[in-house]
Amino acid sequence: MVTSKHLITALEKSDWLDRLLIIAALAFFLLVVLFILKQRIVDRGLKVAFWWTRFIPSRSSSAANVADAMEKGSALTSSATAVISSVVTVASTLIPSVATSITSELPLPTADISAVSKQVVPLSLEAPDNAVIWTTDSSFAATVSTGSPHDEL
Question: What's the burial of 11, exposed, middle or buried (CB within 10 Å: 0-12/13-18/19+)?
Answer without folding.
Answer: exposed
